[in-house]
Amino acid sequence: MQIGQLLGSGRSADVFELDDAWVLRRYRHGGDAVAEAAVMSHLSTSGFPVPVVRATDTSSELVMQRLSGVTMLQAWMDGAITEEDAAALLARLLHQLHAVPARVSVLPGDRILHLDLHPDNVMLTPQGPMVIDWSTAAEGPPGLDWAMSALILAQVAVGPASEVAAGARSMLTALMGNLGALVDLGDVEGGHLPQARARRAADPNLTSQELGLLDEAAALVSDLALRLRQVPAADA
Ligand SMILES: Nc1ncnc2c1ncn2[C@@H]1O[C@H](COP(=O)(O)OP(=O)(O)O)[C@@H](O)[C@H]1O
Ligand SMILES: [Mg+2]
C-alpha cells in the first residue's frame, strides 16, 4: 500500500491519501480501528452518511472512502455557513443517527452514539454532509450524545478565543433549540450532562486549559436547557 500526502490531522489521527478513492486514517497514539470500522459499516448499510470503509485488519489503521470538501468548522470560519445552519445540520445528523437501530445493545432506548459530533467532524461534500471520526462511538441513550455535542460547543463558547467563542455560543443556542421534546439533557446536578462532563474530563486529548473550562461550560448548557424547558419551542 503506497501512502500519499497528508490530507488532514485532528487530535488523535492523521489522514493520508492512498489514491483518488481511498484514504488511510492512522491513530497517532493507538486506538481501535476495527471497532470503528464495524460501527461505520453498520451505519453505511443503514443509510447514514459516513465514508465507506474497506476491510481493516490492524487496530490503528482504517482505510475509508476519500471525501472531498471541507469540514463544517472550516466552512463556518470561511463564512460559507451560518451558526444557525451549522447547528440545524448538527441537529439533523444527531436525530438521523439516533433513528438507526443499535448494533449490539438490546436495551430498548439505546442507539449508536458518536459522542464527538461537532463541526470539525462533519465534512461538507458535494454529495452532502458526511460524519467522520467515529473513534469515540458507543451505544447508549441519545441524550448523552446531545449533551456531548452541546458541551463541546459550550467549552469553545466560554473559552478565550473571543471571535470563535461568540459564534460557538450562537451555534450552541441554536442547537439547543433543535433538541426536540424527547431529549432531556438534565442539568449540572444529574442526567446526561454530568455524564458528558465526566467523559470530557477523562479525554486525554484535552488540554489543562480546556479541562479548566468544563464546569463553566456545563453550567452554560444547563442554563440553556433550563430556559428551553421554561419556554418550550413551538414545535417541541
Ligand atoms: N474520509 C476522509 N476523506 C478526506 N479527508 C478526511 C477523511 N476523514 C478525515 N479527513 C480529514 O482528516 C482530518 C482529521 O480526521 P479525524 O478523523 O477527524 O481525526 P481526529 O480523530 O484526529 O480528529 C479531518 O478534519 C479531515 O480534514
Ligand atoms: Mg476529528
What characteristics describe this protein?
binds adenosine-5'-diphosphate; three-stranded antiparallel beta sheet; binds magnesium ion; five-stranded antiparallel beta sheet; 8 helices; Transferase(Phosphotransferase), domain 1; Phosphorylase Kinase, domain 1; alpha+beta; 236 residues; 16% strand; 2 domains
Brief account:
By secondary structure, this protein is an alpha+beta fold. The chain has helices at 33-45, 72-77, 83-97, 142-157, 162-177, 192-201, 208-212, 214-230; strands spanning 6-9, 13-17, 22-27, 53-54, 61-65, 70-71, 111-113, 122-125, 128-131, 138-140.
Note the topology.
Elements: E1 6-9, E2 13-17, E3 22-27, H1 33-45, E4 53-54, E5 61-65, E6 70-71, H2 72-77, H3 83-97, E7 111-113, E8 122-125, E9 128-131, E10 138-140, H4 142-157, H5 162-177, H6 192-201, H7 208-212, H8 214-230
Antiparallel strand pairs: 1-2, 2-3, 3-5, 4-5, 6-8, 7-10, 8-9
Helix pairs in contact: 3-5, 4-5, 4-6, 4-8, 5-8, 6-8
Bound molecules: adenosine-5'-diphosphate (ADP) and magnesium ion.
Adenosine-5'-diphosphate is lined by residues 7-13, 15, 23, 25, 51, 64-67, 71, 120-121, 132-133, 135.
CATH class identity of the largest domain: Mainly Alpha
Determine the CATH topology of the largest domain: Transferase(Phosphotransferase), domain 1
- Placed side by side, the strands forming the largest sheet appear as 1-2-3-5-4
- What CATH architecture of the largest domain would you give? Orthogonal Bundle
The largest β sheet comes out as: 5 strands, antiparallel
Unreliable stretches covering 5 or more consecutive residues: none
- Give the SSE order as H and E letters: EEEHEEEHHEEEEHHHHH
State the distance separating the first and last CA atoms: 50 Å
Structural class by secondary-structure content: alpha+beta
Work out the radius of gyration. 17 Å
Share of β-strand residues = 15-25%
